[in-house]
Every structure is written in structure tokens, then in C-alpha cells.
């Protein structure tokens, strides 16, 4: 089946620095990827939809200048948290639409802790 | 727009007992329905999905769900749970027929299987 690899699985960074999270579709081409944020014991909140070769579509309330999304190829989308602050600490998950099937494959998530 | 309500935030159950996790949705258009499981600090794994056809859908790990259009429900069931089923379960919907549409998640239900 379709596999999405996400890394790093966890990262600790200092306040004010930037962190990049990668999401790769290993055995299929993903024209669309989704980025979610999940707070402890809560559901997933869609942050943005990433389309290969075009600008990402951000959900209302998500700062596009803080959460930079790049989808430069059909197998790679990246989320960069710029000038991270402790309130950005969260679990970030990517997802890709499985080609030819109505399903979504998720990455294993990235636990970001900003200190 | 669509929304998903998972009526129970937590469901405690003894091992080998049956369980039902409830999910209701609201949408003005036809939808596809999904159930995902999430283990701690991991991404989401698809249990099953309903696209069309038979309203009873069988998934992995012995889970099944029934789509009830009149009640706008998609409850998840398992006749006998194991300790290893302890996890967070998410019900999700997307608009049918739209290849790039995003998933909308319910709030999640924490299944706690006790020995």
C-alpha cells in the first residue's frame, strides 16, 4: 500500500529558531498533501493543503508566514516552522491522498518541542 | 461543509467484551466515511472506509462499521476487544467524488481496554 514517510519523528529546538519537517510519499506520487496539527488529547486540525508546484492553501487562522509549506516535487512536501516559540510545540502530521483510490495515508508524525 | 461528532470522548471496556464507538456526521452533500486508529506518538492508520455499496464495512483488526444514511451515522464495532486495541479512534468524512478534498475529523474517542 501507499506509504508516507515523515521525519524527524521528534525535535527539540530553541525559541527563535526554525525547524523543517519533511513528508515523502515513498511509492506513489502525491499531487496533494495535507498538514495537520494535533494538541494533546485533541483531534487533528487541518493547517494547510499543499499542492505540487503551486502555493499552499492555508486554513483560516493559520499564519502562512510562520508555517511555510513547500511542495516542490510530487514526492516531497515540507513544513517549516519559522521563529518557533513554545506555543508552537505540538504534534504535526502530514497526509497524502492515495492515487486512484479514495483514501489518505498519514505520516508517523513529528513531535515538536520548543524550549 | 461537513462536520463529525464522536459522542464519547472515552470508552472504558473490559478485555473480550464488545465495543461500539459512535460517530455522527453532518453534510449537505454525499460523503465518504473513514475510521482511523492512532497509537501514542504515531500517525493515523486506516481501519476501514465507506465509499459506496454495502453499508456494512469490514476493516482490519476485526473492526467493522455500518453506514446509516437516515441517521447520518457510521458507528464502529468490534465483538471482542483486546488490550492492544487501547488507542485513540477518529471518525472522518470527506466529500464524495472530489479527488482532492480534505478530511474532516471528529474529536476522537479514547478506547481503554482493561484486563
Q: What's the β-strand tally of chain B?
A: 12
SS element count, helices of chain B = 0
The fraction of residues assigned to DSSP E strands of chain A is over 45%
Cα shape of chain B: globular
Number of helices of chain A: 0
N- and C-termini, Cα separation of chain B: 41 Å
Q: Low-confidence parts of chain B lasting 5 or more residues at pLDDT below 50?
A: none
Structural class of chain A: mainly beta
Q: Which series of helices and strands of chain B comes N to C?
A: EEEEEEEEEEEE
Q: What share of the residues of chain B lie within helices?
A: under 10%
Class by alpha and beta content of chain B = mainly beta
Most strands sheet of chain B: 6 strands, mixed
Topology:
The complex is a heterodimer of chains A (115) and B (115).
Chain A: E1 4-7, E2 10-13, E3 19-25, E4 32-38, E5 44-51, E6 57-58, E7 67-73, E8 76-81, E9 90-97, E10 104-106, E11 110-114
Parallel strand pairs in A: 2-11
Antiparallel strand pairs in A: 1-3, 3-8, 4-5, 4-9, 5-6, 7-8, 9-10, 9-11
Chain B: E1 2-5, E2 10-14, E3 19-21, E4 24-27, E5 31-38, E6 44-50, E7 56-58, E8 64-68, E9 73-78, E10 87-95, E11 104-105, E12 109-114
Parallel strand pairs in B: 2-12
Antiparallel strand pairs in B: 1-4, 3-9, 5-6, 5-10, 7-8, 8-9, 10-11, 10-12
